[in-house]
Amino acid sequence: xxxxxxxxxxxxxxxxxxxxxxxxxxxxxxxxxxxxxxxxxxxxxxxxxxxxxxxxxxxxxxxxxxxxxxxxxx
Length: 74
Description:
The chain is mostly helical. The chain is built from five helices and no strands. Helix 1 (14-25) crosses helix 5 and helix 4 (45-54) crosses helix 5. The two termini are 22 Å apart.
């Protein structure tokens, strides 16, 4: 799959993305970058997963933020 070769999110579970993002940015900065309630109000991995699995645009935003984070770490 050549199209996925440069995609740091390929094969990474959403839960693992969230854990890495939270560790790297923290909930407050994640809420600044992606202003959604599950990052702002009593944030947790569980509540975020529930919301993101039902909300495609927000899940895409998280995946893009994850890619940017990984690219900045290279």
